[in-house]
Fold these 4 entries.
Entry 1:
Amino acid sequence: MAVTKLSTLLDGNLVVRGFEISDLIVHVGFADCVHLMLGGELPDEHTRRLVDAMLVSCIDHGANAPSIHIARASASCGIPLASAVAAGVNAIGRHHGGAGEACARVLQEAEPKESKIPGIAHDLVRVALKDKRSIPGYGHRVYKEHDPRARTLLDLARREGLDGAHCRLAEAIERELEQQKGRRLVLNVDGAHAAILSDLGYHWSRVQSFFIIGRTVGLCAHALEEADSGRPLDYLGSSPAEVSYQGPALRSVSGGSAVVGSSTTTTGGSDSTSTEAEKRQ
């Protein structure tokens, strides 16, 4: 028999975490329900504002963000909306959207106590640099001085009285990285999510859920915009990739002479040397 603590049908009514769905529809918002489903209880007003802000911070990061790029490219091929969005969600992993989970694990396993935070941060950074490891949740290819999303979320957490030991450890690590490494690696939005959700009591394995939920809104919008453009495969053509071929030289199955050489081909764009049929593969 399957067991769940999430929902059930009771006397013809859907019950979610003990609340009838009609009750939730009338009295709470989406952020409340996210916290209810993932955290187990309805949030207070301070937590609600923070959860809502975190979801908003994930919705988009431009058409070149990997998940969004893949969703648009998929939609350009003419597949259904659900499939294009699923393609984008499937791109969320260790290297895109996954740093929050990994950072939360680091923060939680450090078990920060207020008086020990500076020493913990110092040791975490020292060991990471010694082992030539990066600390997830720090650094960004665009933001070099600060990630405005992370700063805004942490400021909001302070105003709502919800910044705890994990937030302070995350900021202490940012300072230690700059001091020990000699250059700034900003606490990014993934790191901010990790710290805030850790202080809200979420296990590190739940952190990526918030990124997936928030980003799905942006994936829907981008995929729909691409589909509405009415230009099949146009998005693929607008983002050519220069590829250096390093495979075998041209050869023949029948044993004819081979032509030795290498080539660089731009695929998907107007300058491509490939045929129209090849570009559509």
Note: Residues 112 and 165 are 6 Å apart (CA to CA).
Entry 2:
Amino acid sequence: MMLHLLAYTPGDYAVVYYVEDITGIPLYDTCMVHVWSVGIEDIGDTRIQVLPNPVRDHFTITIKDEGIRPKEIRIYSADGEDVMKMNYRDQIDISDMNIGLYLLEVVDGEGRFYYSKFVVSE
């Protein structure tokens, strides 16, 4: 099962969904979703930078705030797909990623999140 939520403003949303059991009887449930941002263009943190940008095969993460102690990174495609997750390192190989817009998420040891967007080009 896959759910898609189209949100035009940040906030809390109740999502009602259903699946059918093997006999075809629908089963309903509800979950709460919190939307922090409504588009990748809304996200950007000047303390985290991807260089070069656009990127071809690898990039360097530059952290401009000495108080940030990175622990792990995640990379998401523009449609929200989690395409990479690893322990933090400042050199990232993305040679197997498709051309497009991506979001870099850096997580520190205290669970704080920092974001930077980047473009993979030819």
Note: The beta strands are 11-20, 26-35, 48-51, 58-63, 70-77, 82-87, 91-93, 100-108, 113-120.
Entry 3:
Amino acid sequence: MSLLQNSLCRPNSMILAPVRLLSKLTYLGKVGNLLRRRIRGQKRGFGPKWSFAKGSIYIFVFLSFIGQPIAARIVETHTVSDILDEIQPDTLVLFDIDHTAVMPSTVLGSPEWFAHLHKKLKKAKVSQDRFLPYICKILAYAPHVPVETTTPYLIRSLQDRGHTVWAFTGRLKKAPWDPTFDLTTKRHLNGAGIDFERTSAPFGAKLDLSHPPEAFSYGILFANWTPKGPVLVDFLHQIEHRPTKIVMIDDQASFLQSVENSLAAEKIPFVGYLYHGAKSLEKPFDPMIGNIQLRELCQYGKAISDSEAQVIKKDLLKRKADLSPDFFLDRLIDSLR
């Protein structure tokens, strides 16, 4: 069953959950009244005697009540502010980074450009390891912007009200192309007006922000290209923190499902938001724009915008109409053979 089909089935169970809870509470109340009547009867010397077997039945009923599955669901949204409906005082709020909180503002550094690069390297039979210095430079300089202009304000507002708000990314903390990629990630966020370091440690958590767990830095939890669920649970165990609820927003369904499954085993309520906001901002991929930006970065150390690259593109095509879109990238790859 797909995530969409699964999520469409979930609202029915969520609607029925309060009804089931009320019936269980009503039934438990009746059991309690019965217990009280039995105890009073024994004290007065009449009524059936209490037996271990009967007591065990009542205890079993109570344990079966508290052992019910914890509420969890994944819903789809195009707006980050939808998460506010689910946030309570002790809720842990987790933001995915790429294409949820922020996104590259240029063609160079975008997922489409890196996919294009991968194809070019594979066709030329050049190892990606040879290109790592350039990848490091691209990611260090690539400007990022909020997917929604209101997201930085929303995060700051939650932080100012005392909520625990952290980033939770699939990125590597230490990458082959950048051993301090956690710092680069922090700069991407800061450049977009987002600072997860402003978040205080949750009350009672054993989290020393000057010496945090290995996967955590700058208010960011790194999954290091692994499923997010086990990473989150391990982190919560390390800091000895058990939030009453976790709300997470992410553009990847697999990450949300991983967290949902892991938190179900921990009996921590979870609401995941599958975010589609960045899809409406997608533009047709133009390899020549990324190629021009790469040339400007490598030759002149400048990070230029898409609009600036567009002006250069028009000038280049005036001089040579049949210029290859990858004129600079092709030369760069050839030099690495």
Note: The longest strand covers residues 72-77.
Entry 4:
Amino acid sequence: MAGIKDKSLLLKEKERIKKKMLEEKRRVNFFFTDFGTFVRKQKVTGLAIAFVLGMISSDLVKAIVNDLIMPLIGIILPNNDWQAFVLTLGPLKLALGHFMSVFINFLIILLVVYLIIRWMTKLNLVES
């Protein structure tokens, strides 16, 4: 009789574990299904790609400014040291070289964003 009870308990425990595993599998499947729906609805993939491209293009813009544009501006400034150019007016010191570098970076990034949005509008990817 004891052997039958032990087998019965083992079968019940096995069934309980099986149900728990099935429930856990459903939770995992729901998570991935829900996550996939979220990614599609919110267009997270596009946002992630835009973020990575933004980071990469930032380096490109800095290189364009520092290596192509600013050397031309450096010809105009004394000693060709445009980043260190400081305008001193009495006790006031204005770091115009650094400001010009940041401002030109901003303008180039603004131009790139404008061109991308204009291109996307032509392809009807975004509303104007």
Note: Helices lie at 2-42, 44-76, 96-122.
